[in-house]
Structure formats: C-alpha cells, structure tokens
Amino acid sequence: MKNIAVIDDEQYICNIIKEALDEFPDYTVYKFTEPEKAAEFIGDNNIDLVLTDLVMKDYSGVQILERTLASHPDAVVILMTGYPTVKTAISVLKKGGYDYLIKPFKLEDLKSTIRRGLELQQVKRENVELRSQMELMHVTDAINKGIKLQPLLNLVVDSAVKVLPAVSAAILLLDRKNGEYNLQAQSNMDTDDSFNSFLRGDISKCPVDFEKGQCGIYNEEFEINGALHRRSYVAFPLVSRGDPIGLLTLVYTDRFNHIAAGQIRLISLLASAAASAVESNYQDRNLQRAYLQTIKSLANAIEARDRYTAGHTDRVFRIARIIVRKMGWSSARLAQLKAGCVLHDIGKIGVPDSILNKPGQLTEYERNIMKKHPELGLKILAGVPFLEEVMPYIIAHHEKYDGTGYPYGLKGEDIPIEGRLLAVVDTFDAILSDRPYRPGRDTKEALDELIKYRGSQFDPVIVDYFMEAYNEGLINSNVIYGKTGLNVGMLNQI
Ligand SMILES: [Fe+2]
Asked: Ligand 1 centroid to 306 CA: how many Å?
C-alpha cells in the first residue's frame, strides 16, 4: 500500500486528483487544502509520495518538499504550478524533488508521473534490501576466510547496525564458570547511557527463550519535541547445541514503525553466524589447550632427562618477558613468547641421554648431534597451524649476530628477532645454571659475557635492553637464581 498526500489550496484541484488516484486500489490518498496541516500530517505519518502545489498563500511547495524529505528521505515529491520558470524548476529538482508538473496537466500525465516515481522508489528500496544481503554475505565470507573471533564479532555488530539501521548493537558472551554475560563487542559506544544497561545484558524487559531460540522484543513509544517516536529493544539468544552461549542485543529507533518481522529475520541470521563462530572458536581453543598440554609434557620430559636444565624454560620466559615489554611487544606476541620459551629446546628429545647428560666436554661428533636440536624441534612441531608463529624461537635461538651460529649461519637482522632475543636470555641463563661439566657461575660473569659479545654473538640492541632492565632491578638474579655479583659501576659504563 502506498500513502499519498495531495496538497493544493484550491479545493477543486484536490478533489479531482483524489478522485483520479482513488481508482488505484493500492493507493491511499490524503488531501489537504491547508499546507501547515499537511506538513504536520506528513511529519507524523508514513508517507510514500507527496504531490504539492508550488505557490500557496503563505506557504511554499518547496517548504513542503523540505519538511517531507526531513522525515522520509526516500519519499517521492512532485511539485505543481501554473507559473513555471526554469529557475524554479531547477531549484525544486536540486532540493530533491522528483518531478515538476505544469498546470493545467492531463490526469493521465499525472498518473504516469506518479507511477514512475513510485517504481523508482521501489528500486531504491530494493537496493537497500540488497545492501543488507551484501552485509550478511560480507559476514559469511569473513567466517569462511577464517577471520578471528573478535574481529568477526565486531563485524557482526557493525553489520547489525547497518542493515536495520539500529542505534547500537552489542554481543555478550556467557562465562561458563560464573554464568555471567560479559560484553564482547559493541558498536556506537557513544550512544545514550539509558540504552547501555540493556545492551550490556539487562534484558529483563524482553527475556529470550534459549530453548526455542526465540528473541525477546520490547516496544516503546516516546516523544521528542512533541513528536512521537518508536523504539524497539531486541535480544537474540546465541545458542550452540541447545546451550546458551551469549546474546546479541540491539536498539532500533524509528519515527513511524517498530522493528519489522523481515528485519528480525535478517538479524537472526547474523546472530546464528556469531553463535557458530563462538562455538568453533571454543572448540579451537580446547584443541589448542590439548596440543599445548601435550607439548608442555614433552618439554617437561626433556627437563626431567636433563637435570641440569630443570626450570630453564621457565626462567628464560620470565627474563625474556621483561625485555620484550621494554621493547613494546603486543600481548598477542607475549602469548607466543611463552610457547616459544617453553618449546625452544623441544628438539632435544631426539638427542641421546649419553650426549645430553655427558659430564665432560662433547666431542665434535657429539656437538654436531646436539646442534641438530633446532631443526629436530621444527620437525616435531611442523603441521601444528597455531604454532607457526612460535617456529622462529625454535629454529633461530642458536644463530649468532655475526653469522657464526647454527643451523643456518644467519647474520644480523636476517635472524628473526625471536631468535636474537632467546640467544641473549638463553646464554645468560646457561652461564648462571649448573652444567654437567661445571657449576653455575655468578651474575657478573654472565653480564660480562653479554657485554663482551655485544654486537658479535648478540644483537647489541637486545643486550642494551637487557642491561637497562638489569640496571632498573627488573631482572633480579638473586630472586631468580639466588646469586649476586652485580657490578653496578660496570653497568654504568655501557
Ligand atoms: Fe637450544
């Protein structure tokens, strides 16, 4: 059904036009001879098309045009006048009018102009619908490409806001430990505070049915400057295998309508996309945990075999973490650092006990076997996708800055930063730890070694960060190793 307003201060013109248009069963025609009343009516009702006289006593058709488009941006507005000028016609079209009829006109011309205007409007509205579908495809595509969970949830709330359009949307995920819903993503953070408690999980006004997967809707009406507005609060349950896992909440505001069934269907598709992404992320994380647990057990097995390096990976991680924080690494890189430190010597699994725990110096043959542990480690962990970013720690921690390290003899910044970092920390820890062929040495000797080989064996920048952290008391060898021997004067010379 199309709502049409006809405005002309000549009563008989209004009557003729209404009579002509009443023959179309899908048109509802409202006629007005007083432009102020017409403007008020248009502001308070859903109107598709306005046909207005251009010059009416104190009121102009251009004012009607402006008032109409302010409330209904896609309305078709047709102007009529008995005194046409080119200048007026251009000005009307520039302001967003659809067409311009010169009185007297044939009723057939009027009908065909109205029909064309409404057809164009329909095409535009379908385009809007198409854009909504595109938004949904955008989300589906992102899921298929394996987008990470947080960007995906951000995308879902942004799409929900665009396709409705809504004032704001949020996703909350259920914390399975305490049963609380935590905010995970929200669009338009600067929206009215009164929405926020709803968006953040207070859905008492529109409870959802998790069992049936049904959304909760609460409609309200309110006035702004005397004009009626409508607002819908909608909460969608995110369900996986029949269990609640979260909520998608959104607030929709419209001057004339509450949220429609078609819009609900669109958003429910987004909600189910979010739910399946959350579930698959949960499964991935469980799998990752299981992998990491297995790998940690392997790493523990190495430390158990090599009694001299017990606690080595943990100490290396604690020291390396201090340095990379100084270097400004992100929290995501810090998480990889932990796995890298735990796993960097995993290849020692393939080194025989007789070599690993030999009390004396290794022969050249034995040293060559020992030197294979970075490559062995890489082989052990190859094919575990989420460990790809950990590989540089494993393969490059025995490379030296001047190119004399192994396995590849990489030089300078060709060595991944992860390898350059571990080279410094690993050496520091190795000097302070008891070895099969010698007892652990003191902190001063370890620091002397770092300074001596700064720029040859070690990346000078990382050594500097290390020394800075030590000077600031961040690396406390007394706490970590129960050893002292720091020569502050020496540090100040660096
Ligand atoms: Fe190693």
From this structure: 12
Pairing, β 27-32 against β 2-7? parallel
Parent domain of 469: 306-492
The Å distance, Cα 313 to ligand 1 centre, comes to: 10
- Is the pLDDT at 187 greater than 90? The verdict is no
In terms of pTM, does the model score above 0.85?
no
- The amino acid at residue 205 is K
Report if residue 240 sits inside a domain.
yes
> How far is the centre of ligand 1, averaged over its atoms, from the C-alpha of 490 (Å)?
29
Paired tokens of 144: 């298929």
Tokens 């945990």 locate to 289
Task: Name the β-bridge partners of 3.
Answer: 28
Can you tell me whether residue 366 is helix, strand or coil? helix
The answer to whether 393 and 373 have CB atoms below 8 angstroms apart is no
Mean pLDDT of the chain: 86
Q: How many domains does the chain have?
A: 3
Residue 340 has pLDDT above 80, yes or no: yes
Compute the distance from residue 384 Cα to the ligand 1 centre, in Å: 20
Same domain, 121 and 14: yes
- Which pairs count as long-range contacts for 450-455, CB under 8 Å and 24+ apart, including other chains? 450/424, 451/490, 451/494, 455/401, 455/402
Radius of gyration of the chain from its Cα atoms, rounded to whole angstroms: 36
Q: How far is the CA of 373 from the centre of ligand 1 (A)?
A: 7
Do 197 and 107 lie in one domain? The reply is no
**Phi and psi torsions of 179, nearest 5°:** 75, 10
Find, among 34, 24, 30, 40, the residue nearest to 3 by Cα: 30
Chain segment 410-428, per-residue pLDDT in tens? 999 999 999 999 999 999 9
* 312 and 422, same domain (yes or no): yes
Q: What distance in Å separates the CA atoms of residue 438 and residue 35, rounded to the nearest whole number? A: 101
Residues ≥6 apart with Cβ < 8 Å to 128: none
Residues 218 and 264 in one domain: yes
Across the range 324-342, mean pLDDT stands at 88
CB 250 within 8 A of CB 170: yes
DSSP, collapsed to helix, strand or coil, labels residue 399 as coil
Whole-number pLDDT of residue 295: 72
Residue 426 CA to ligand 1 center (angstroms) comes to 8
Q: Which two tokens stand for residue 130?
A: 């198409």
- Of the two residues 474 and 111, the one the predictor is more confident about is 111
In this structure, are strands 168-174 and 181-186 parallel, antiparallel, or unpaired? antiparallel
Longest Cα–Cα distance of the chain, Å, equals 115
pLDDT at 484 over 80: no
1-10 pLDDT, tens digit each? 999 999 999 9
Judged against a pLDDT cut of 50, whether residue 218 lies above it is answered with yes
Q: How far is the CA of 390 from the centre of ligand 1 (A)?
A: 14
For residue 182, list its beta bridge partners: 173
